[in-house]
Amino acid sequence: MNDRDFMIGSGIFTLIFLGYWFFGAPYFIVERFVMFLAIIVFSGILIFNTRKAQRGEEIFLRTIPGLKAVEEAVGRSTEMGKPVLFVPGISDMDQVETVAGVIVLSHVSKMTARYETPLNVPVCRAIVMKAAREACKESYLVEGRPDMFHEDMVHYVTDEQFAYAAGVNGIMVREKPAACIYMGKFYAESLILAETGNSIGAIQIAGTASQSQIPFFVTACDYTLIGEEFFAASAYLSDKPELVGAVKGQDLIKLIILALTIGGVFIRVLFDAGILDLNILNILTVR
User: Fold this and answer.
1) Which of 12, 16, 47, 239 is the one with CA 20 to 30 A from 104?
2) Would you call 112 helix, strand, or coil by DSSP?
3) pTM of model > 0.70
């Protein structure tokens, strides 16, 4: 759909809704108009920024230090002649953090192919293994080094949480990778992995949205992508217009929500003080 078709479709939808409202808006719950308006505005912001990115217009995304450190980590592994260990978490592909981790793996595997550095990716889910293999294979093809790719670089360990952690720890102790990268969804095994990687002197970069595990990664790793930085990283690395535009749109939505929150508190304070006769709760409360 090009911009002209999009504008025509939006205009038709607006005219239909205005006509529906003019005729009394049957079955429309007027008390939830604020929610309806929010959905329309926020959807419009996301669509606008996504289409802006698809048109090739420049959208600024700030540099994330942890992503800059990935190339440094791979370069260090190349200089030392040691492999890069990439751990994509312990969840399946139904978790968005695992999907984001596989996208980052694609970027890392491009660099290992470019620098001819060994890559080791232990996984604990069969579907994740298949997705990670395809991501690595495509990256090696893009870099013109399909001969360096072999399926054993992405290998299955076990489905059990702590058995998987023990297996990855064994790989660390035996192979002593120069760089350990943890990108995905982690649970109690996060500190076990990070402490083992720290003990062998590897440079460690982690990324997760699991709030309970972020403190452990911050403590034991050199760089940590915290929360939404992790998801922004996948958009930053993939350079896909849909993802870049969505990140920009979400940031604008957060700014709007923050401004509305501050404004709502201010209006409520004026109402409680008897200065303003407007109860903001009557407008924002969904009945």
Assistant:
1) 47
2) helix
3) yes
